[in-house]
Amino acid sequence: MFPFDVVPDVVPELEELPVLSFEEVSDFLLVELSVLLPEVLSVLLPASVLLLAELSVLFSGEELDMKKEQVLLIEDDADIREGVRILLESENYCVEEAENGKSGLELLSDETDLVILDIMMPGMSGLRTCEEIRKVSNVPVLFLTAKAQESDKLIGLMAGGDDYLAKPFSYAELLGRVKALLRRYNIYRGRNNEVREEAEPYLRR
Predict the structure, then answer these.
(1) pLDDT the model gives residue 17
(2) For a surface tag, which of 40, 145, 180, 199 has the fewest beta carbons within 10 Å of its beta carbon?
(3) pLDDT above 90: percentage of residues in the chain
(4) How many CB atoms lie within 10 A of CB 69?
């Protein structure tokens, strides 16, 4: 605390300060801002441009990482194709469709992450189609079939299939198997492994 005898010396100095009106204060602030604003902007604008450029690079990289996984659906039943396509597209997968094995092989590419393949199709069967796929790719193959016997599943797996789902199936189970196969292919095993060995000879009878 100041001694009481100091206060009288301070108070007169305060009383001598000019009293400014609201208009005068506003004019003073406007003048100061008009001087300072260009200087502030000259510093902030380059930094903002640099930040936007860095964000653009960052988001473009994220978009590449988030590229849709591609699923090739080979199924002769149009209703099943439509239902599976709608389901997978709702989960952000890119779906290509083929109604027979020959058309499916033409659509197969290095960008394909998963093949969903019906076994019983006219012309080239699903087993034969899978054998042809295995000659050029190790992409996972999920068989869809009305045959649910253990021997049928064994033949499908020996032909090069990775999983086997019997009809009728639930979309929830299908989606779970699709995600599991894609995870193993793209993360655990890796899509760059060598093509598997050829299918068992007895399957080509």
Answers:
(1) 55
(2) 40
(3) 45
(4) 19
Average pLDDT over residues 38-48: 64
- H, E, C per residue of the chain: CCCCCCHHHHHHHHHCCCCCCHHHHHHHHHHHHHHHHHHHHHHHHHHHHHHHHHHHHHHHHHHHHCCCCEEEEECCCHHHHHHHHHHHHHCCCEEEEECCHHHHHHHCCCCEEEEEEECCCCCCCHHHHHHHHHCCCCCCEEEEECCCCHHHHHHHHHCCCCEEEECCCCHHHHHHHHHHHHHHHHHHHCCCCCCCCCCCHHHHC
Confirm if 136 and 112 have CB atoms less than 8 A apart: no
Maximum CA pair distance of the chain? 117
Query: Using CA atoms, how far apart are residues 205 and 196, in angstroms rounded to an integer?
Result: 20
> What's the whole-number average pLDDT of the chain?
78
H, E, C per residue of 91-146: CCCEEEEECCHHHHHHHCCCCEEEEEEECCCCCCCHHHHHHHHHCCCCCCEEEEEC
